[in-house]
């Protein structure tokens, strides 16, 4: 008797349209309007979190730079003395490894020992070319320019 006597509950929403009923309970679903008063607080919270994350990243980078400086010095165990680029990914490199000097071929596929050059102190220094006999770039360029202009 109570079920038949009780009127069906209907919630009226905007424009007089009744709210849909929940599937299990049969009660009308009423949705609350979004609250925009907390938007400023959530933006401030998000910005604060972003600042904290960025500060942690910078602190970690600074710490890593400091830790690298604390590594024990190994001296000059390996040192690259010079090199020559042969192609896009190929080079010749002279490496000082302790007392030995090595000529290495470096490619994209690996590193190969090409020749042992011996001690750095035992190697005679290459005589420097007589720079007085060679014309300067300016002189050589001027001569070539005169030749080209004279032919036309």
UniProtKB/TrEMBL annotation:
<keyword id="KW-0282">Flagellum</keyword>
<keyword id="KW-1003">Cell membrane</keyword>
<keyword id="KW-1133">Transmembrane helix</keyword>
<dbReference type="Pfam" id="PF04347">
    <property type="entry name" value="FliO"/>
</dbReference>
<keyword id="KW-0969">Cilium</keyword>
<keyword id="KW-0472">Membrane</keyword>
<comment type="similarity">
    <text>Belongs to the FliO/MopB family.</text>
</comment>
<dbReference type="InterPro" id="IPR052205">
    <property type="entry name" value="FliO/MopB"/>
</dbReference>
<dbReference type="InterPro" id="IPR022781">
    <property type="entry name" value="Flagellar_biosynth_FliO"/>
</dbReference>
<protein>
    <recommendedName>
        <fullName>Flagellar protein</fullName>
    </recommendedName>
</protein>
<dbReference type="GO" id="GO:0009425">
    <property type="term" value="C:bacterial-type flagellum basal body"/>
</dbReference>
<keyword id="KW-0975">Bacterial flagellum</keyword>
<keyword id="KW-0812">Transmembrane</keyword>
<dbReference type="GO" id="GO:0005886">
    <property type="term" value="C:plasma membrane"/>
</dbReference>
<dbReference type="GO" id="GO:0044781">
    <property type="term" value="P:bacterial-type flagellum organization"/>
</dbReference>
<keyword id="KW-0966">Cell projection</keyword>
<feature type="transmembrane region" description="Helical">
    <location>
        <begin position="43"/>
        <end position="64"/>
    </location>
</feature>
């Amino acid at each position: 008797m109570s079920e038949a006597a009780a009127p069906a509950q209907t919630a009226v929403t905007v424009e007089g349209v009744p709210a849909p009923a929940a599937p299990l309970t049969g009660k009308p679903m009423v949705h609350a309007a979004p609250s925009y008063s907390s938007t400023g607080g959530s933006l401030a919270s998000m910005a604060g979190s972003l600042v904290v994350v960025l500060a942690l990243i910078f602190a970690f980078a600074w710490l890593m730079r400091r830790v690298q400086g604390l590594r024990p010095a190994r001296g000059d165990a390996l040192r690259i003395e010079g090199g020559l680029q042969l192609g896009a990914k190929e080079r010749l490199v002279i490496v000082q490894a302790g007392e030995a000097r090595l000529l290495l071929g470096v490619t994209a596929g690996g590193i190969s020992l090409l020749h042992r050059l011996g001690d750095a102190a035992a190697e005679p220094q290459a005589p420097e070319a007589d720079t007085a006999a060679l014309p300067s770039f300016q002189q050589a360029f001027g001569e070539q320019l005169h030749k080209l202009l004279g032919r036309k």
